[in-house]
Each structure stands twice: as structure tokens, then as C-alpha cells.
Amino acid sequence: MSSILQQLLNGVILGSVYALLALGYTMVYGIIKLINFAHGDVYMLGAYFGYFFINVLHLNFFIALVLAMAVSAGVGVVIEFVAYRPLRQSPRIAVLISALGVSFLLENGMSYFFGSDKRAFPQAIATVQYHFGQLQISNIQLLIIGTAVVLMLGLTLIVQKTKMGRAMRAVSADQEAAILMGINVNRTISFTFAIGSALAAAGGVLIGLYYNNIDPLMGMTPGIKAFVAAVLGGIGIIPGAALGGWLIGILETLTQAIGLSDYKDAVVYGILIVILLWKPTGILGKNGREKV
Amino acid sequence: MVERILQVTDLSVHYGAIKAVQQVNFVVNRGEIVTLIGANGAGKSTILRGISGLEKPVAGQMMFNNQDLNGLSSESRVQQGIVQVPEGRHVFPGMSVLENLRLGAYTMHDKQQFSKTLAHVFDLFPILAERKTQDAATLSGGEQQMLAIGRALMAQPKMILLDEPSMGLAPLFIQKIFDIIQQIRESGVTVLVIEQNAHQALTIADRGYVLESGQIIATGTGAELLASSQVRAAYLGG
């Protein structure tokens, strides 16, 4: 029993990182209907920025985290501007291919310039284990959950209460009507990429600290899993991404716990297939055809 | 003293090979209600979309308050005081009535002005005040149209462009919408309205233009067009 609880806890921690990533997928999809396949690589870049700030500039972990988020936000804006915006009037498939191109560029570019080997992520915070009865949790794990929750609350506040958040929702709901309100759609889309990329970077830095190593391809699998999480929760729906992230994290950990480690990825992708077949709008999605 | 607020000269808008609007000329004077009438596909909506910046004309000039609109973004046009109420209402679903109205005031930065305008809109449409926390998608068609108009008024427009405001509404609401249009004009906002409901539109309009296949084929005061045999035959059912 306690081991199940322990696994659930581990799942929630892993799921927090998926959730941070899934939020970016879902926000970008909500606003420009693009599955941004380069999103996992922004998470990787975020981890590298964190590595750089801690290892090279010897900054405090939290300052490094915030700076990595800020720089990655800028990277996200540039990616959108260079690779997606020129294709705004093109068929969706063209933008999707462009996103795959950006993904390859980032993965291989990082391998080329910084090597494809794993690097040890600095142990900026010494690990301390806490015990609650049979349950065990480290300060790093608490930090991951805490940061994820704080960032999600911050995001909710931005989306629900600020003018820019209202503009984001308006552009997602009805782009043409948003234009007629005098909303600058391009600026709103840039802002969305900035926020999504910052959240991904936070996930990357946290995972670096947790697993102690980073490499240029570290974003591939979590990227796809976070995408599955976003679809599971209901793509385009912000709370759905958080829910989906946690569910995928728990599912993956439980699959490992029952001795099916080799199948943990297969189970996650299996979920994607089942969801797409059975309820493509996801758990929180409303049933109904997409308006064309 | 008649003062031009909008002067459209030789406006042409194409969708690919389709010449939706061809060399159209018309003017709107400050404080007027002007209507463009014509059959489906005559180019009425396209003209409005050209004015609000949703479509880019291939030729022609649009002067608003002596300023050339070509080259101005839709955002700047809203700031200049041109606000369009889209056909089919397009309220933002999943957002409350109040949030929709806030979005209408997106270009406004003065909080006091905002409260004043909101009070004015609630005055015009008491139902919106009653429903202000309700999801806009759950309103009836007529209420959504009121919200769409109220939302446009939140930007404090000098000129409001109404695209088929009576479309799909119950007769009771249609009358109400036309009453509101007159109230909007009385509050000092110039109105350019396009309608398939030509009779109603001409009844409240100072002047009208009749469009056919992307060209203006007749013009006159509302009363003149209502009396014209040509217009009666084509648009008013004899």
C-alpha cells in the first residue's frame, strides 16, 4: 500500500514536469492551431540555459531558473517569428513541417556545437530526503511540485485576469472578432509563445536538477509525452494540460512499478491512440465538431 | 453643415479571381445612418471588411476623418474610431458578457472612460447588465446581437459598421435592433449598416446605396429608395 502511494507521489512529480510542457502545447494549439513539435526542444534549451547560468556564471539556482525562463521565452518568440509567422496564411501542414524542422535544427544544432554527450547538471541544491512514515520525498521533488504549482497559478492569473490574458483567450476563441476589437493578433501570439516557452524551460531546468544530467535529445520523449498529456486533457484547454500531465506522469510511474518498465512509453502512446479513437476532444473537451 | 466622415473612392476588393467589389464610390456624413442594400453576394460585407481592414483592397481610397485608411492596421482603425460588428455576431464563447464588453474596450486605457461607457451600454441594453456574469455563448441570438453591438460601442467608436444585424433574429428582436441603431445615432455615432432586410434598413436610414454584383447601381435617401420601383422590384418583394 505504501509503495503504491510512493509511486503515486513519484508520478505526480514527473507529471508536474509534463504538465509544464503540456501547457505550452495547449496554449499554442489554442491560439494558432499548431502542434508545436519544437516545444520539447525549447525545454531542452531551457535546461542548457540553466546549466550555463549555474555552471558557468555560478548563479543561484532560483536566479538561474528565472533567467533560463526569460531567455527561453525570447527563443520561443524568435522561433514563432522566423518559422511560423511567415506561414500564417499557409495550410496547417506547412507550419507543422516547419515545426519539425525547427525541432531537428535545435537538436542537431545543439549536438553540433555543444556535443551530443550527456552533461552532468550541477547539483545546485544538495538533496535532502524527508520521510513521512513509509513515504519518502526529497527537497528537489518538493521544489518541482512547488514550482510547477506556483507557475500554473501564475499562468491562471495571467490568462484570467490580465488584459493580455483576455486577448489570448479572445484570439483563441475567434481570431477575426479579436482583430475587430483592436487586438494585435501577432503580439498576442508572440506573448503566448513567450509564456509557453518559459514554462517549458522551467520544466527543463527542474528535470536537469532532478535527473542530474542533460543532453540535446532530452526533449524528444518528454515533448511527445507532454503532447499526449495535452491531448488527453483536451487540447487547447489550459486546465486540461495540467490534468493530462499529472495523469500521464502517474500512469508512467505505475507502469514501471508493476514491473513493465520496458512498456512505459508504449502505454503512454497507447493512451494517445485510445483517446484519439474514443474521445478526441480529451477529458475536459466538449464533444462537438470543430467549426471550420 | 454636412461633414464627411467617410469617403470611399473607386474601391475594388478581389478574392483571388473573384471581383467582389468593383470601383465603388460612396460617402457617409457625420451623424448619418447610411445603409448598403443588395442581394447575397452583392459585395456588401466585403466593403465593410475593406473599411475595417479585414480585407485588403486591390485599388481605391478610403478617407476617414480626412485620414487615408490604406496602410493602417485594423488595430489603428479601431483606435481611429471605426468599429465593426461582424456578421453572425461572433461573441467570444466561454467568456462572460462582462469579459466580452471588456474586450470591446481593448484599445481604451482610461478606467473612468471605461466605467462611463459600460454604464451607457448597460443603459442601452439592460439585459446585458442582468446577464453580465453569464457565458456569452448561452445568450439567445438576439441577446448575442445586443452584446456584439454593446461590445463595439465599448470602443467609443465615431462610426459603427453593422453587418447584417437583424440576420436570424426573431421579429421582436429585429424591431428592437433597428430601434437601437437609431438610439446609437442619436448618441452621436455615425452608422453604416448593411442589411438584407432592405425595407427596415431604408426606413431608418438617411441615405442608402444599392449594390449589385459588386457595383453601386442606385442611390438616394431612404424614402426615395423605398419608393423606387427598381428597388421595390428587386429587394422589397414588389
Automatic annotation (TrEMBL), chain A:
CDD domains: TM_PBP1_LivH_like (cd06582). InterPro entries: ABC_BtuC-like, ABC_transp_permease, BCAA_transport_permease. It is found in: Cell membrane. It is a multi-pass membrane protein. Gene3D superfamilies: ABC transporter involved in vitamin B12 uptake, BtuC (1.10.3470.10). Keywords: Amino-acid transport, Cell inner membrane, Cell membrane, Membrane, Transmembrane, Transmembrane helix, Transport. It holds the Pfam family BPD_transp_2. Belongs to the binding-protein-dependent transport system permease family. LivHM subfamily. This is Branched-chain amino acid ABC transporter permease. It comes from Leuconostoc holzapfelii. The lineage of its organism: Bacteria, Bacillati, Bacillota, Bacilli, Lactobacillales.
TrEMBL record, chain B:
Belongs to the ABC transporter superfamily. Keywords: Amino-acid transport, ATP-binding, Nucleotide-binding, Transport. It holds the Pfam family ABC_tran. The keyword ATP-binding applies. One of its GO terms (biological process) is L-amino acid transport. PROSITE patterns: ABC_TRANSPORTER_1 (PS00211), ABC_TRANSPORTER_2 (PS50893). InterPro entries: AAA+_ATPase (IPR003593), ABC_branched_ATPase_LivF/BraG (IPR030660), ABC_transporter-like_ATP-bd (IPR003439), ABC_transporter-like_CS (IPR017871), BCAA_Transport_ATP-bd_LivF (IPR052156), P-loop_NTPase (IPR027417). Residues 6-238 form the ABC transporter domain. It comes from the Bacteria. This is ABC transporter ATP-binding protein. GO terms for molecular function: ATP binding; ATP hydrolysis activity; branched-chain amino acid transmembrane transporter activity. SUPFAM superfamilies: P-loop containing nucleoside triphosphate hydrolases.
